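Risk register update: the risk of archive-format incompatibility is retired. Evidence:
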Amino acid sequence: MKSIRNNRGVALPLAIFALVIIGAMVAGSFFIGTQEQRIGRNTVGSQQAFQAAEYGAQLTAATWNSQVMNAMAVGSTATIGGALSGNQGWYRGEVRRLNNMLFLVRSEGFSADSMSRQQVGLLIRLRPIEITIAAALQTQGDLKIGGSSFINGYDVAPTGWSNCPALESPLPGISMADSSGIETPGCNDLSCVTGDPKILEDSTISDSSLTTFGDVTFDGLRDLASKIVLGGTLKIEPSIVGGVCATGSVTNWGSPLNPTGPCGNYFPIIWSEGDLKINGVQGQGVLIVNGDLSVQGGFEFFGPVIIKGTLSTTGTGGHFNGGVIAANVELEQNDVLGNAVINYSSCAILRVLNASASGALLRERSWINLYGQ
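Archived output:
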């Protein structure tokens, strides 16, 4: 006869063991799920921070403030900062000027909860308009010079401007395709022209040579303009509101006669849609006229002047410091009469072109991810 084994008390330990195993599995699953959630949250935060950092750097490049950035001294910095829409993060950083042409943008981005951080850098190079001034006055049409006007190819530094480079070698006073078209009433023996030489006859001058600037055509200059006027008759003078230069004013083109004033560092690129008449007072920058330019009232301008049509000065005329290109595409006559003055000034040209230059990313290796956490 077989004996019956006593199995009382086995169920409870088995149940407890099963509960332990199940609890361990649940705890493990919970731990793994929590870790996955944290990894996902960290990934989202890291991407938010990276997006904010890149946004800050790219926004600075896309909205380059020439008036502020281009006026910085080498080695100095300017702060940047802002937030993304929809509470998607925020950024802060700085722009440092490395040399006369190169800037480093450092943008540090943060996630919406500020727990994740990424930092990127951009190298930005100034891209000035490629304007080559080969004479105080360049043209291809007929030219009338008279009165007490004066065209000077010897380099002149603007009065009151500091940190101008050494004077450069003189340029021709006038460069034109055919010098037989010059009339000189009241300017015997070209006494109102100086330069080396006074007149340079250049057969290569044409519509194309006077209206092409690097890889930019004349019409393409409109896209680079920071100020557009419709033409007509204007009186140009600085506008200051509350001690700040009112750059939005159509007739405010800076204050070259007061270089330390609020508008002293304002160098706009001005595009005139049609014929333009100016009756005083002062301006600086790059003046581009899609038509004819007529000046009177003692107007003084500092920087390159590019005219698709003809130049006419009368009365007290205009004083141009930099250089004038009158393309004269319809081959009409340019009149430089009255007491007009055209001075070649390398300082005015260099400062205006650099100050008005847009910021462009380097074509290669302009972007770098500095660090992240």
